[in-house]
Write a structure and sequence with these properties.
- This protein has eleven helices and 13 strands.
- The chain has 308 residues and is an alpha/beta fold.
- It has one domain: Rossmann fold.
- The chain has a seven-stranded parallel sheet with strand order 3-2-1-4-5-7-11, sandwiched between helices. The chain has a two-stranded parallel sheet with strand order 6-13. A two-stranded parallel ribbon has the order 8-10.
- Strand 1, helix 1 and strand 2 form a beta-alpha-beta unit.
Amino acid sequence: MEQRESGMRVIVTGGTGFIGSSLCANLVAKGHEVVLFTRDASRSRDQLHPRISVVSWAPGAAWESWVDGAGAIVNLAGESIAQRWTGAAKQRIVRSRVDAAVRLSAAIEKAAVKPSVLVNAAAVGYYGPHGDEILDEDSPPGTDFLATTCVAWEEAAKKVESLGVRVALVRTGVVLGGDGGALAKMLPPFKAFAGGPIGSGEQWVSWIHRDDLVSLFVFALKNPAAKGPINGTAPNPVTMKAFAKALGRALHRPSLFRVPAPAVRLLLGEMATVVLDGQRAVPKKAEELGFEFRFTDIDAALRDVTGG
C-alpha cells in the first residue's frame, strides 16, 4: 500500500484530461487536498474522485479565494493541438494557454498566502524540428508555430517568479497510456494488421509513459531544486520506425504499412509537423535532479500500456 504523505492543497487546472485525471488520482492517494479548476464544474464532479473539490473557474466565478493558502498549483490548461491549425484554431491554442497562466498569476498576486510552486505544463515542441540533434533544456527555442506557442506559454507562467513562487516548466513529449493520448489514434490500424511508421520513419519520437510523467509532476512539486524547464521525456527517444516496430511487437502485429508524409499533410495540414518532424529530446535536468524513471525502454512501456 502506498504511504500517504502530509498533505497540502494542490490546485490543478486541466485536470479532467488524459494526464490531469491520472495526476489528480495520484495526488489524492498521497494524501493531498486536490482542488480542480474547470470551466464545466457540474460535468466534472460526476467523473472524479469524491475527495477532489471541483471549482468553476469560468469568467466571473469565485475561484480566486482557493489560491490563497494553496501549497502548489499545477497548470495543465490549454486547447488541444490535435486539430487542423486554422487561423482561428491557432488563436484558441495560444490564447487558452497564455490566458490560463495570466489568470493564475493575477490570483497569486492577490493571495495573502501564496503557493510555493507553480508547475506549468509545456512541450518539447518548444525546440522546433532539429532532425537528429539531441536536445536538452539548454537548447534554444524553435521558430515554428508550436515553438512560439510554447515560448509564450512559458513566459506567461514565469511571471509569478517575481512574486516569490518557484516555477517548474515540464516540457512533455509523446505521452503513452492505454486509454487516450497519441496512442489511441495509432492502435486501431495496428490491431487491424494495417499499422506501420508515419512519414519517413526517421523522425524522432520523444516519448514518456504516463505514470512517469505524473510522477515527474509530483517530483517537481516537492523538490525545491526543480526550477525552470524540465524535459518530460524518457531517457531513450526512438525513431518513428523503431516506435512502430515496438508497438507491433507489443500488439503481436506486423509494422509494414507506412503512412506516406503527403497523406499525413493532406489530413492534418500544418499540424502534421508534430508527427512528421518530432524532436530528439532527453531529460537531462530530471536525471540531474535524481528523478528515477520506471520506464526507460520503449518495448517495456508499450507492453505495459497495451497489456501486451
